[in-house]
Each structure stands twice: as C-alpha cells, then as structure tokens.
Amino acid sequence: MFGEEHVQKIKNIPLSNSTVFRRIKDMSIDIEANINERIKISPFFSVQVDESTDVSDLSILLVIVRYLNVNELEENLLLCYPLTKRCTGEDIFNAIQDYFCENEIDWAKCCGVCADGGKSMSGC
Fold first, then answer.
1. Is residue 122 in some structural domain?
2. At the N or C end, where does the chain have fewer CB atoms within 10 A?
3. What per-residue confidence (pLDDT) applies to 122?
4. Four-residue CA torsion sign, 89, 110, 106, 40
5. Whole-prediction pTM
6. Among candidate residues 120, 106, 34, the one with its CA nearest the CA of residue 77
7. Is 13 left (phi over 0), alpha (psi -120 to 50) or beta?
8. Alpha helices in the chain (DSSP H)
9. What is the pLDDT of residues 23-36, one digit of tens each?
10. Beta-carbon contacts of residue 75 (< 8 Å; ≥ 6 apart)
11. Which phi and psi (to 5°) does residue 93 adopt?
12. Domain range enclosing 65
C-alpha cells in the first residue's frame, strides 16, 4: 500500500514504553469522556452491575451501561473499579454514586438496574 520510504519513516518514530502508555491513557480518557457525554445526552440509561473476586482475592466492581445514542441503543463498560474495603451492597452503591457525582451523571435518568442475586448485590 505504501512505499518503502513511508515504512522507513514510521520505523524511525521513537516509541518508548512511556510514550505508548501515555497515548493509551489519553485514548482511554477520551473514550470515557465520550461515553459519559452520551449518557448525559440520552433521555434515559440503565446499568448492569456485577462484583467478582479474582484469583488474588481482589474484588472488582463492573458496571455496564446501556443508553440511547441517536435512536440506537448502545452498551459500554462504564466502570471497572477495585473494591479494597468490604464488599457490601452499600460499598457497591457508594462506588457507583461517587463515579456518577464525579462525572455529573443524573440518577433520575436511570430507568433500570440489573444485578445477579448475590448477597452484596441485594444489600445484605
């Protein structure tokens, strides 16, 4: 597609680990901002919440969001958050609430919450 000259120019671009890390971080910040903006514009959204413990005994909170974007439903991973303290329903709610407040997401537009039947998800 491109000639050897273009290939050599690309090979000469220095990409250290920190440069790659920084670019990936910048892209993730941009994607998160876009998703949050779409949620704010949408007339409603719903969330699916799950908490899981990995092999190192770290609890991870996952929040998937579904929202309307230009007449089409979209679904994205909104939050992947380590729960370092206890893992009660209150802790899970507070983590989501903190994220919503920090990103100015309005709970009033939330039309549904889906969770498994685990004790921590049902507030026990």
1. no
2. N
3. 57
4. positive
5. 0.78
6. 34
7. beta
8. 4-11, 17-41, 89-102
9. 899 999 999 999 99
10. 64, 65, 66
11. -60, -45
12. 16-115
End-to-end CA distance of the chain: give it in Å, rounded: 60
Number of folded domains in the chain? 1
Task: Dump pLDDT digits (tens) for 29-72.
Answer: 999 999 999 999 999 999 999 988 878 888 899 999 999 999 89
Which one-letter amino acid corresponds to residue 71?
Answer: N
Q: What's the rounded Cα separation, in Å, for the pair 58 and 90?
A: 18
Contact between 79 and 62 under an 8 Å Cβ cutoff? The reply is yes
Q: What is the pLDDT of residue 110?
A: 96
Chain position carrying tokens 């892209």: 27
Question: Domain for residue 10, yes or no?
Answer: no
Residue 92 Cα to chain centre, angstroms: 15
Under DSSP, is residue 73 helix (H, G, I), strand (E, B) or coil? Answer: strand
Q: Is 65 helix (H, G, I), strand (E, B) or coil?
A: strand
Please indicate, yes or no, if residue 32 is contained in any of the structural domains. yes
CB 79 within 8 A of CB 98: no
Asked whether residue 49 is domain-assigned, the answer is: yes
